[in-house]
C-alpha cells in the first residue's frame, strides 16, 4: 500500500511540469476562442451553414469570424452536404492540405452516412475518407445544432494536450 | 413575352458614385448606432436579430420534425405493437423493429397483444421526413422537438428504445407534446 | 549620445504604438463589421470580445508552418517581411505632435525631421508592391500568382494619382518637409476657413482618399484577396504566422495611410480655430501630450472610416478598377495640379 502511494508520488513529479501545463492551458485558451472554419458546403446543408454564419445565429461570436476558403489557414473543416464519388479525392486532398491542428465536423445525414442515398455514386459517410470529430444528424440540421457541434469541438480543444500528445507518461497520469 | 432591355441612363451625379456611397454610409451608420446601443442591454438576447445560442434559444413550432419519441397512452402503457410499418415505409431504411408477444404478467406495460422487443433508429441515416409518424397505425411514434443531436461518435447517434421513451417523458414534463389530431368534419351534403 | 538614446526611445515607442493600434484595429474591424450587419460579433473572449486579437495571435503562433514543396523557399519566406517593412518604416517621418522642450533641449515628437520627407513616403509606397508580388510568385500556385499580378497592377496604377494629389498639397505649402507642412496648417485663410489641406485642395483630398483605399488593398478595391474569385489571392498558401504578418501588415498599412491623410489634409495636431500653443505654453509637456492626443483622435476617425466604407460598398470589378484609375483619376489629378498652379500664380501676381 505504501509502495503504491510512493509510486504515485513519483509519477506526479515525473509528468509534465508546471511550465508546460500552464503553457498548454494558455495555448488551449487561445485556440478555443478563434476557430477559423473552412465552409465546405456542397449541398442543402450548406444553406443552414450559411444561416449559422449570418446574422440570425451568429457563429462569429465564437471567434469564427473569418471563414477562409484556403485550407492552409483554416482550423475546422465543416463538411456540409452530400459527397459523391467524384468529389472524394478532392475532399481528401483538401483535408491533407490543412495545417495541424485541425478538426472535422460532419454536418447532415448525407455527410455522416450516405443518408437517403444508398447508391453507387454517393460516399456512404465521409469517415471512410477522413477522420471525423463531431457528427451532426439532421436533414438539414438546424443552425443551432451546428453551433452546438462547434461548442463541442471547442470543449474538446480545451482538453487537448498539444505538447504531450504522444508521450506515454501522460497516460499514466490521466 | 420577353422583357425589353432598357439601358439605364446615369445622371451626372449618379456617375460620380461618391454621393451614392455617402447615402449608403448614412444607412450603415444608422444600423451601427442602433446595434451599438442595443448591445449594452441586459440579458442574453441583446441584438434583436440574433439568437445567441446557447443562452438564448428560439421558440420551436409545435409541428417541428425533430428527434423521435415512442408514445405512451393515458394509462402509461406503450402503444407500439412492433408491426414494423414504420420500418417498411422509411425512405432511408433507418428503423429496425423486432416484434415479441406480450407475456402473461406484463399486460399493464403494453397496450396491445404484441410489443417491440428492440426498436432502433439510426439517426445518421434519418432524414426526418415524418413518414413513420404518418403511417403508424397506433400513433405510437411521433417526431418531437429535439434538435441538439450532435455527438462525438457514431454509436451515440443510434436511438435505442430507452432513449426514445426518455424523449417522451421529457416532452411530457415540459408540455411539448403535440395536440391530439382531430378528424376533419365530413361535409353533410355530398351531392353538391 | 543623449540624442541616440532619445531617438531609440522614440523608435521603440512609435513601433509599439503602431503594433498596438494594428492589434486593436482587428478587434474594431470585427466588432464594427458585426454591428453594422445586425449581429453581435465576437463576445466570448473577454468582455465584448476585446481579447480576441490576443487569441488570434496565440492561435496563429501555434499552428503548423507549411512551406509547399515546389515553392521557392527564399521568396516564400521573404514575402511577408517585404510586405510589412515599408508600412512600418513610413512612420519615421510622420510628426505625431509638436515639440517638447526639456531643459533647453528640443525634442520633436517625430523620429526624423528630414527635408525630403515627402519623397521618402512616396518611395516607400512604391516598395509596398514587392511584398505582394514576391509572396504571390513564391507560392507556386496559380491562384496566388493571379492575385499577386492583379494586386501589382492595381497598386502601381493607383500610385500615380496618389503622388499627384499629394504633390498638390506640397505646392500649396511650398515644402517637402512634413513638419513644416504640419506647422503651416495653423490659422485661417479667406477669413473663415482653417488653413487645412482639405480646404485648400478639396478635389485633391477626394483623389487621395480613393487612391489610398486602392493602395491599401481595401474594399472597394480588394479584388486581390477576394475570396469568391480566386480563393485567397496572394496569401492562399500561407498559414500560421506568415499569414498573421500579412493580415497585420494590412492594418499597419491602413494606419500609415490614415496618419498621412491627417498630416497632409487635416491639420496634423491643430484644433480648427483655437491656437493651443498660446494658452498651454509652447514646448511644455502638457502641450506635447495634448497635441499627440489630438493627432491620435484624428487618426482613429480615419481608421474607423476605413472600416465603415468596407462594409458599405461592394467590391469593384477588375476592369472597373483599372478604368477608374487610368481614365478618371489621373486626368483629374493633372487637372487639380493645373488649377493649383494657376491659383498660386494668380496669388503671386496679385499679392506681390
Question: How would you describe what is shown here?
Answer:
Chain A is 42% helix and 10% strand. With 174 residues, chain A is an alpha/beta fold. Chain A has one domain: Rossmann fold (3-Layer(aba) Sandwich). In chain A, strand 2 (76-80), helix 4 and strand 3 (103-107) form a beta-alpha-beta unit. In chain A, helix 2 (18-32) runs antiparallel to helix 6. Chain B folds into two domains: 12-58, no CATH class; 68-173, Alpha-Beta Plaits, CATH 3.30.70. A three-stranded antiparallel sheet of chain B has the order 2-3-5. In chain B, strands 1-4 form a two-stranded antiparallel ribbon. Chain B has five helices and five strands. Helix content of chain B is 26%, strand content 12%. By secondary structure, chain B is α+β, with helices and mostly antiparallel strands. Chain C has one domain (2-351). In chain C, 67% of the residues lie in helices and 3% in strands. Chain C has a two-stranded antiparallel sheet. In chain C, strand 1 (100-102) and strand 2 (105-107) form a beta hairpin. At the A-C interface, helix 2 of A face helix 2 of C.
Structure at a glance:
Chain B contains five helices and five strands.
Rg over alpha carbons of chain A:
19 Å
For the record, the CATH architecture of chain A stands as 3-Layer(aba) Sandwich
The CATH topology of the largest domain in chain B is: Alpha-Beta Plaits
Report the top-level CATH class of chain A.
Alpha Beta
Strand order of the largest sheet of chain A: 1-2-3-4
Sheet-strand content of chain A, in percent, reads: 5-15%
Strand proportion of chain B, as a percent range, falls in 5-15%
Measured distance between first and last alpha carbons of chain B: 40 Å
Total DSSP helices of chain B: 5
The major beta sheet of chain A can be summarized as: 4 strands, parallel
Work out the helicity level of chain B: 25-40%
Distance between the termini of chain A: 20 Å
The counted number of beta strands of chain B is 5
Largest sheet of chain B: 3 strands, antiparallel
Order of helices and strands of chain A: HHEHEHEHEHH
The unreliable regions of chain A are: none
Whole-number tally of structural domains of chain A: 1
**Total domain modules of chain B:** 2
